[in-house]
Structures are given as structure tokens and as C-alpha cells.
Amino acid sequence: MNSPLPLHPRHRFPPDFVWGVATSAFQIEGAATADGKGESIWDRFCRQPGAIADGSNGDIACDHYHRLEADLDLIAGLGVDAYRFSMSWPRVQPDGRGAVNEAGLAFYERLVDGLLARGIKPYLTLNHWDLPQALQDAGGWAARDTVQRFVDYARLVAARLGSRVASITTHNEPWVIAVLGHETGLFAPGQRHRGTAMQVAHHLLLSHGLALQALRADGCPARLGIVLNLSPIGPATDSPEDVAAARLEDGRSVRWYVDPLFKGAYPDDVWQHLGGDAPHVEPGDLDAIATPMDFLGINYYTRGVVSASGAWSAQTSGKPLTDMGWEIVPEGLTELLVRMHRDWTLPPLYVKENGAAFRDTLEHTPGGARVHDGERIDYIASHIAAVGDAMAQGVPMAGYMVWSLMDNFEWASGYAKRFGIVHVDYATQVRTPKDSYLWYRDFLLAQARARALVAA
Ligand code: FCB
Hints:
Layout: E1 18-22, H1 25-28, H2 41-46, H3 68-78, E2 82-86, H4 89-92, H5 102-117, E3 121-127, H6 133-137, H7 145-161, E4 167-172, H8 174-182, H9 194-217, E5 223-229, E6 233-235, H10 240-263, H11 268-274, H12 285-289, E7 295-299, E8 304-306, H13 330-343, E9 349-353, E10 362-365, E11 368-371, H14 374-392, E12 397-403, E13 422-425, E14 430-433, H15 435-455
This protein binds beta-D-fucopyranose.
């Protein structure tokens, strides 16, 4: 293929480095009511007028639920070591409590077995945002009882799949669930109250720690951890006001999660700032949250720039932007990883999501359909190199995963934002590997050849 970039980012990666690609249940599965699946908060949220930019929903999405085998072949065709997917909680427990919905669980058994048959390690995420609506009706993540419901769900899943998957992530991006879901209201369940958001964040972290303890007590052999969305956060200018605002934002989006997980304490400055919106914490909660993990997953897309007046704009920063309007800053990933390694004692780190939306066009050529997404190749290659730069500075990195395998339902943005390395025509469900898929495949082949040389 005609790769516009050199195949190798400038680094060699160790032979046991895990290369992968990621998706999540609500964004690709569709089959919203099939085989006894219950309603999730995202099913409900999509029906709220104005909630989703294009008025769409996840009812069909990529219809992955009905196209599993073909999609598994697409994953296998990449030559990845691992596939990161999430389970829809209401598919497995329609009301978020009680007996397993066997038909729903069977789908994930087919998925996991299909990966194993193709030599791909399953990386399972328990909660990628689609809480059962029945639990939301009982108070959702703001209610302490949901913590125990999650622990029960985690145990039930691990009892069935724990010995077949390589890794179990409790939650994907608790900041997003807490803040976008409960403070700004841009995501499900669409609430707007800071105190609620902080209680939600606390219950997510607590349920993570208690689930880890329960799975270990049950003898679950999978490696256990959490995935956080993190960015380096800097001030727009050197003014003391901007510096203070950036420090607080770093506190709210980074330290508020990493400190309790790895130091067993919430950061004082943020706690003071929150005043009456600080969460209710019971004795023993912080010890549970700090239960040791086998890995920490990090999702990285862009940096954060903060000004006290809110005047700063990515549109005028001079950096290239993706179709989400996010600045493309690969060196921000190196900066973030180096800082993580410096400021906390951490288990092995993975980049669990990294990728970009661009306005792709499907071209019909005599040789077949093509998508020339050179910008996405450039984005992925430069960020892989940024991971290598962090490793060269001593950060122990265990893996990297592209977001996403295929175009999918991008939450409040609907289907207009395309993150896939495989193009999806939503009218026909035809999948077309983009140039970035072919590039990643060739890159992984080169990595595999280098590994074989090392082994020989
Ligand atoms: C992350 C989400 C993922 C996807 C990407 C673009 O925050 O985890 O589901 O939407 O952003």
C-alpha cells in the first residue's frame, strides 16, 4: 500500500508490548432490545430531544451484535494482540440486578471464544457508560446501593468469563460519567449538579475497588484495573489567574482520580474548592479505592489548555485540529506519561484509547472502495512514537490500542464523527478498511517480524 508515512515510528517496542484496537458495546452493537436486553441510560438519553447532535440513537449502530463473525475477522486481519470491548450491563442483567440473561451473556461468550480461536487476547471492560435504566430509576451512580449492584455484576461476569479474558477493566473514564453525565449534562443521564457529579465519581471509584477485592477473593485470574481519560493540563498564559485555574482543572480531572486510586486520598485543594459539593465518604472507602491494580489504562486524545476567563480557544491555537475540534498534540501524550510516572507509583501503563475523527470520504475506484485517511495515519503513527518517547524516558508502558476498530455512534455527536480505521456505511452496514487499517496492519506485521528476529 502507499503509506504516506514511514512505516516505523522511530522506536522499537519490546516483544511483549500489547498492540490492540478498541470499541465499546453501546457504540457498535445495536440490537437494543434483542434477546431480552434491558434499557440503558443511553437508550433513554438518545430519546431526549436535542440530546444527540444528529437526532440518532444506538438502536442499530454498526449492527455488530448480528455481524460478530465478520467483525472478528476484521480484527484478526489487523494482526493485533488484543481487542478491547465492553459488555452492555443491561444485556447481561436487564434490570441491573438478579439472574443472568443467558441469551445476552451468550453473545459475549461467542465474542470471547471467537477472539481466542483467532489468537487474540480479550480485554473486557465492564462499564463503558451504559448503566441499566432500572438502576438509574433507583438513583443511579449517585446512590450508594449501585456500588453493590456493580460488584455483583462484576462477580457474575468474572465467574463466567474471568478465566478466558486476559484483562478486566472495571470502569471506562469515570470523569466522563461523573462530569459530562451529571454536571454539564451533555451525556447520559443528562443531570446538571456538581455535588451529584462528585458523589457519582466517588461511587464509581469505590465500586471499582470493591469489585477488585471481590474478584480477587473469587480467584479471578484476569488482570484487573481501570481506564482513565487524562490530559496534560496547562495554563493559556503565565498569568497567576490562568496558572491557578489550570492547577484546579488538573486537580478536578486528573488528581481527583489518580490520587485516591494510588495514594488513598482526595487532593486537598480540590476538596476545599468543592465546599458543600464534596462527596460523602464513609470510613474504609478510601482504603477500598486504593486496592492495588494490575494495570492502569489511559485514554489520550488531546491536551487541555485553561484560562481563568474561559477565553482560550482550540480553534485559534494554531495547532491542527481533528473533526471533533480537538488539537493534535502527540507530544502531550509523552508529557502526560512522563508526569504520571514521576508523580505516582503506578502499575504497568497502557494507552487504552487513542485515535481521531476526520471527515473521511469513501472513494469508489476500479480496485474497490478506498478511504484515503492520511491524517488519521499521521495521528496514530505520531502518537505511537510519542509512547516510544515516554518509554525512552523510563516510563514502563505495556501496550497501545487504537480507538476505534470501526466508525460508530460517537455519543452526543451521533454518527457524524468517524473515528474508525474501518469505514461503516450505515445504510448498508458495509465495512471498508481505510488506509489507516492497512497502515496499522503493516506496522504490526513489521513489529511481529522484529519480534521473531529477537526470538530467533
Ligand atoms: C472516549 C470514549 C470512547 C470514544 C472516544 C472518542 O472518551 O471512551 O467511547 O467515544 O472518547
